[in-house]
Amino acid sequence: MAKESIKLAGQSALAISASVEGASDEMPVILAHGGGQTHLAWKRISMLLASHVFHAIALDLRVHGNSERALI
């Protein structure tokens, strides 16, 4: 159950960052944080889900954490 960080292609080619726990062939669970938070808000839950045979994907929504920001 190794943790990894990934980048997903978002709108306008801006990268959305996510942390992943659990095997990729297991049932996926997408975790999205509230305003002002990051994927770290889901750290304990991600580890718990992975230990129960789920593939937990915790997102850093746009303009949060490690996700890219649009330049204006």
Can you put this structure into words, describing what you see?
By secondary structure, the protein is mainly beta. 12% of the residues lie in helices and 36% in strands. The chain has one domain (4-60). It has a four-stranded mixed sheet. Strand 3 (27-32), helix 1 and strand 4 (54-60) form a beta-alpha-beta unit. The protein starts with a strand and ends in a 12-residue tail after the last strand. The model has no long low-confidence stretch (mean pLDDT 89).
Number of E strands: 4
What overall geometry do the principal axes of the alpha carbons give?
Answer: globular
Question: Order of SSEs, N→C?
Answer: EEEHE
Main sheet: strands, sense, barrel = 4 strands, mixed
Keywords:
72 residues; mainly beta; four-stranded mixed beta sheet; 12% helix
Quick recap:
12% of the residues lie in helices and 36% in strands. With 72 residues, it is mainly β. It has one domain.
